[in-house]
Amino acid sequence: MSINDDFKKSEGKAYRFVLILFSTMIVFISASIAYSIIKPNLFGFQPELSSITKNPSKANFKDGIHLRTGLINAKGLMTVINNCTGCHSSKIILQNRMNADRWNATIKWMQETQNLWDLGKNQEIIVNYLVSNYPVEDKGRRENLSDIEWYELEN
Amino acid sequence: MKRRDFIKKTTLASLATLIGSEIVFGSNLLDGYIPLALQDPDPFKMFNKQKGMVVLNDKPWNIEAQAHLLDDKITPNSSMFIRNNGLVPTDLDAQKWTLTIDGESVVNKKTYTLAELKSKFKHYTYQLTLECGGNGRSEFNPPAKGNQWTVGAVHCAKWTGVRLKDVLEDAGIKDNAVYIGFHAVDNHLTGDPKKESISRGCPMAKALQDETILAFKMNDEAIPLIHGYPLRLVAGGWPASVSGKWVNRISIRNKIHDGAKMGGTAYRIPCDSVAPGEKVADEDMCIIESMPVKSLITYPKTGAMIKKGKALTIRGHAWAGELEVSKMEYSIDFGSTWISCDIEKAVNRLAWQHFQATVNFPKKGYYEVWARATDTKGVSQPMLLPGWNPKGYLNNACHRIAVKAT
Fold it and tell me: What is the pTM of this model?
């Protein structure tokens, strides 16, 4: 066996090893991702607090914002997270500004069409959280342009 | 076998194990492509969108473009907004895909495979403007409920498919037909299998237009999964929600279709205009049909600083739902004076039109360039927000960009 053949053989071994390692890693990582996706469904629509959201550690917050959801840390936050982020993203909450009447109507619509459960006394806690932390601001009939990023245009 | 191919096949096999089904055409997957079932947290990679796109919502996925990202005459996938009402389907098989035509007003209920649709009916290609009914919602006051789209929920890609009317006529349309309604495979957000996430449609007159097609190609390639692969109904000029993605059934109805997102306040505006914030009963809401006249300045990007005395070229697109744009103007003095500019004819009906102008600024200072389109009925874009409506649809107020002459 020539040195060259030997080299080829060991190269092949190394390659197979890397391949097995790589495939195992892929399967493991993919399984973790898949589990994290499936997991929320395991809880279905039960409005029960999970152990994670029941006792939020300080590490979950920065500058008064709950990091995972982007929601303001204030009274009622966990009730909102547990009842309102199972089916949809917190991003749709952050985008909207409504008064109590319209939030209540939205909750009624979600109960009629989106399988939302009866919120009981939590409804008042949720609506209070929303109207106090995300109040309606008067935008007028047309706003000024804002957040303009100025740049030199060569033309 | 090439090493890379071998690795790819091994990886695919493990992916298939995870997803629990074979990945059809898996070997054709692009390098670095991860099937949606695994929900890569990076939507830009997952949907092949460019970085400037803005994620409004991640469950369901809703992503919009910015004006300057829409400069292409034919919108590429990378700049196309994403609007979903439900969950993106994960296990689609184009080989087994069928489309059923049914409903109270079909003569013979029929089912076609995708291959049959392609071989039996003539193919047509049209560039079609699809704009989300809620594009511009973010500007309404008081705020309207829903995803707060700014200006980027519009695109005009090139779609290839068969005419819906050819397929409907092949199955047979009864005299009492009123409306069509589509059904698709995307699951409801709650995962409830009994619920459809969206099932909208249009009156027969729109369904039977030449340009209303069942598309299997977008910009000359298979439609990207997120935009409706393998079959999408495309009805240009109407709220994009009429253009159902992942369509597998179309019902010819003897009444206005009553599927998900057809009733209540969804894609409806008050039949009679109301004061901002006024409550409107469901029965006083009317279905949106054609989208209104609108335009977008796609070059330059807002915030341009130019040297005093230099002329600025602006360009963009204008569209008018079922109609054409007959006049295009711009203003640099907040609408005190308007200057006409060139507007091209559309490449086909229901495609957007392109405008261009050379703008001169008389002296140093802050300017806004406003664009205003007028349709063939003489209706123009308003400078202020149009009529308030509870869900914030149809904001076609003039687009503007900020410019400084220095």
Answer: 0.82
